[in-house]
Amino acid sequence: SAVISQKPSRDICQRGTSLTIQCQVDSQVTMMFWYRQQPGQSLTLIATANQGSEATYESGFVIDKFPISRPNLTFSTLTVSNMSPEDSSIYLCSVEVPGTGYGYTFGSGTRLTVV
Amino acid sequence: AQSVTQLGSHVSVSEGALVLLRCNYSSSVPPYLFWYVQYPNQGLQLLLKYTSAATLVKGINGFEAEFKKSETSFHLTKPSAHMSDAAEYFCAVSAAYSGGGADGLTFGKGTHLIIQP
Prior knowledge:
The complex is a heterodimer. Chain A is mainly β.
């Protein structure tokens, strides 16, 4: 399966600031996915990042709050902007490497606490 | 649009007993279905997946699941529970998978599996 390196693993941030999360994959992939897991909750898809085009956001998530970059086939960033305590969550990136049959692989996540 | 319902936010079984975690899905297209496990403070690990091949799918750690289209179900089972199975289990659905055109996953709310000694 693909190996995903996600940074930072955790951070504590002041409200009103922004945090950029990086996701590096050891394989070239077309799609990269970003999820949020709020405390004690399930995962919710934030957006799909396709290299060379604008990310596609799910209902309830907007580009101004969660801008995404996808500069090449192995890397993506998610920024959480103008943070509030409600943004405290685990953010995960995920990929599916075509033809491997391994399903979707997830990064270890970024645990964000906003104070 | 897809959705997943996991019946039972908490399931408790005795060590050695049958594990049954329920998952029902809704999908406007033939679904691809997944079960993931999340141990405390760890990432998600794929247990098994259904991608329109065999309806009975065997996964890791002795788990298996059966896709039943007529019941729109994909329940997860294990014949004999082990203490190490205690974790959070998520059922997820995707409308498209692989070939470079994968969709993201829609997750159920999760089931916390408790193993009683």
